[in-house]
Structure formats: structure tokens, C-alpha cells
Amino acid sequence: xxxxxxxxxxxxxxxxxxxxxxxxxxxxxxxxxxxxxxxxxxxxxxxxxxxxxxxxxxxxxxxxxxxxxxxxxxxxxxxxxxxxxxxxxxxxxxxxxxxxxxxxxxxxxxxxxxxxxxxxxxxxxxxxxxxxxxxxxxxxxxxxxxxxxxxxxxxxxxxxxxxxxxxxxxxxxxxxxxxxxxxxxxxxxxxxxxxxxxxxxxxxxxxxxxxxxxxxxxxxxxxxxxxxxxxxxxxxxxxxxxxxxxxxxxxxxxxxxxxxxxxxxxxxxxxxxxxxxxxxxxxxxxxxxxxxxxxxxxxxxxxxxxxxxxxxxxxxxxxxxxxxxxxxxxxxxxxxxxxxxxxxxxxxxxxxxxxxxxxxxxxxxxxxxxxxxxxxxxxxxxxxxxxxxxx
Length: 391
Ligand SMILES: [Zn+2]
Hints:
Blueprint: H1 2-36, E1 58-63, H2 83-88, E2 91-99, H3 117-124, H4 130-133, H5 135-152, E3 157-159, H6 163-175, E4 180-187, H7 199-204, E5 207-211, H8 234-246, E6 249-251, H9 257-266, E7 272-276, H10 290-298, E8 302-305, H11 309-312, H12 317-331, E9 336-338, H13 355-364, H14 369-387
Parallel strand pairs: 1-2, 2-4, 3-4, 4-5, 5-6, 7-8, 8-9
Helix pairs in contact: 12-13
Residues 187, 253-254, 275, 341, 344 line the site of zinc ion.
């Protein structure tokens, strides 16, 4: 009798386990995404101003859409970016950044590198098994996904990796406003797995900017949200030099203030901060100080202002426009752009189709049409025309 109860109990547990696994693999990843990549404002009826659709090059410096198990060639009613929504928003160019490891309990104050949520996500998405254990594998896998979407898009979307490909794209897009493009960046150099040699693999995969750290300190340098928040390590300095040789731009988003100082001391290359806010408007550990803003400006760098609350201390286009105004006044209107952090496991003001609201908010900040066109994308275009490798 007891044996029978025990056997039945075990059978029940096995059935429940199988059911859990089916639900986990079928819905786990998209359920997580739906609950995390949310918006303040649903963009069902956005009014574009009379000249929005004639802005020649709308662009954004930072989006984590490749982290999720969502076919970017199809329009979705969740998440922030996909190719059809980019087309709707007259968007010419989006940098797709690779998130390869994030800590449990992620926060902007202090995180260790001991836990790895992206490992669980890659398991739930049933990615190749090597991705569960290697951050390099899963980062390169995400890079490949962008080419996969480009193939699937039948010419509507392409990947930019050089000045030549960008110039050709500009010619083609003049004739066809329905074209969109992307470029690859890394969010955290920990996916180099402690080897400068691995930089070449990411260069070959098309990665053209790299944020040295993400939410935790790594082999290369200190994060603004790490345990120690130190500067560059000796290996980190070596990496900075190697990146410069290959024309891979350094992204200082998420870097600790000491890391930013060390990068400024170790390279003269133009620098990016792909998605940020500024302490002058929104004081927190996440955001950029005036001193750093001014130094990056002097080197003809580019500041991408975010579309979420921690970056701009507000939940609408007006808040983002206010921070953009601050940067433009401090270092010049040629050095500020959008760095939305779309699909970065955050609540943004709206998805990509809400960008007309940014244009309206910039008009309220008294920017001219010419300046708005720079901020909305021409600055990004010109930065990469100057700084991408020739071919
Ligand atoms: Zn980020």
C-alpha cells in the first residue's frame, strides 16, 4: 500500500515536472520579456509632424533586442524594436548591442559577477548547449542572429560594418526610405573571456563598438555598478589599444568614473557613451558627470541619451529632450544623439514607433529643424562615417 502511494506520488511529481519544463521552454523567455520590456505609453495613435517622415536618417545608439527570442523580421505587440516597427518610424539605423551576462538582483549601486541570468535565459530559449556555459559563444550567437534577420528580411534590413557599407547604404536609402540597417556592439567585454585574442572574433563578427563593462567589474575594468568600481586593469589598457588599432569604438556607458578617467588617459580616439543620462539633470550612479561630458566632447565623441526613467528622471519624451538640451548646451548639438536602451529589460517611454514624440519635445526645447535632424540621427551617421574601419 505504502509502495503504491509512493509510486503514484513519484508519477505525479514527474508529470508536474514535465509540465513545468514544457511551459518553461514554450513560454518562459517570452513571458519574461513581456514583463520586463514594457512602456509607459502605448503608441497606438502617434501624430507625426509634417516633416517627420522626411528626416533623412533617424538612428539610435543602443538596443538589446538580440537578447530575446523574438523574430525581428516580424511585427510584435510587445518589446520595443523590430524591423517592421523601425520602418514605421522611418528609422534608418539601430545599433544592436549584445548583453551576455547579467547578475541576479541587478541594480545600479553594486553587483557582483557571481550569478548569471543570461545563462538561464539562453537555456530557456533552447539555444545551442555551448551557449549555456560560454559567454563568448552566446555573444557570438547573438551577433549571428542579426545576419540571420538580415537574410530573412529579403533586402529590407542590412548590417553595417564599415565606412564603405555605410556610404553604400546612404546611397540606397535615398532611393528607398523603406530600408533599415543595424550595426553590432557589445555591452560588456567580459564575453572576450579574459583574452585580448578573442577581440578579433568579435571584430570579424561585425562588432564596431564595445562597452568595456556592464553591471559588474570584469577583467578589463571597473563598472559604475560593480563591487569595487576600480579603473582599467593592465589588461584593460591593452584592450583599449587593440580596439583603437581595429577601429572599434570604446563605449563608456556603465563604466565606473575611474575607468572613464583611465580610458581618457590611455587613448585619444573619439569615444561614445551609447545610452546614458547626465548628472546635471538626473543625479545618480548611472549618469555622466559634467567633467566627463566635457572631456568626451573635446574629443569629438557622442552621447546617446536614454528613453527610460533612471537615465532622464522622467517617463516621457520631454524628460529625454531636457537632457539632450543640457548636453547640446554643454558640448554642442553635434555631439548628442538617441541612446534609447530599447529592449534592455527596462520600461521605456514608448517603443520605437513613439520617436515622433521626441521630435515634438525637441521642438518645444527650441531646437531648429536642422538641429533636430542632427540629434535624431545625423550625428550618429557622421560619427560612424568618421570612425568606422574603411572596409
Ligand atoms: Zn545598458
